[in-house]
Amino acid sequence: LSDEQWQCLAGLVARRAAGVPLAHLTGRQQFMGIEVLTGPEGLIPRKETEILGRAALGILDDLVRARGLVSVIDLCTGSGNLALALAHYQPRCHVIGSDISPDAVALARRNAEYRGLQDRVEFRVGDFMEPFDGVTVDMIVCNPPYISTAQVAQMPQEISDHEPSLAFDGGPFGVKFLVRLLREV
Fold first, then answer.
1. C-alpha distances in Å from residue 123, one per residue of 40, 103, 134, 159
2. Rounded to whole angstroms, how far apart are CA atoms 27 and 139?
3. φ/ψ (deg, to 5) at 35
4. Angle of helix 81-89 relative to helix 102-115, nearest 10 degrees?
């Protein structure tokens, strides 16, 4: 390595040792077998969300077989990883993702372009179902904030210092958004 490359490597190692998540250093993360861009604007896609993604994909495949083209809403989309994975693996769907955070939506839009899915996946800024007035869909997916406010304060610093708390905090009992989902959908 050149001196410049050694300095770059040393800087990356120092940042990682200081708790910066690896996904923020590389700017990338694998999710359901596809690579997505990451940054402090949105949650780093996690393996446990793949459980939701694979279950949703199974239902989506059944809907496509029954109906042909299918439309999907992804609430609390964050970096857009779930919306993009569904569109990647099921080309007969159109997905609209939304998030209350304009920064997260900007990251999701960059991801759509990065994955070449901007023709079938769009992202909107807004609070929960608000961006979808008058939109008819076949399926809704949502990975909402589900950690209680008290637990958010106790999360590892690697997470709490580098990822948006808005994406984790599910209210006093962690179910605030699940209750909203049941009420509003």
1. 18, 12, 16, 25
2. 30
3. -95, 135
4. 30
Run means of pLDDT, 10 residues per run, the chain, 185 residues:
95 95 96 97 95 98 97 97 98 97 98 98 95 93 93 88 88 92 87
Measured torsion, CA atoms of residues 95, 100, 104, 109, in degrees rounded to the nearest 10 = 40
pLDDT at 9: 95
The DSSP H or E segment spanning 14 is helix 3-17
pLDDT at 185: 80
End-to-end, the C-alpha distance of the chain in Å comes to: 56
CA distance 166 to 159: 12
Identity of residue 4: E
CA distance 162 to 41: 9
Residues contacting 153, CB < 8 A, separation 6+: 160
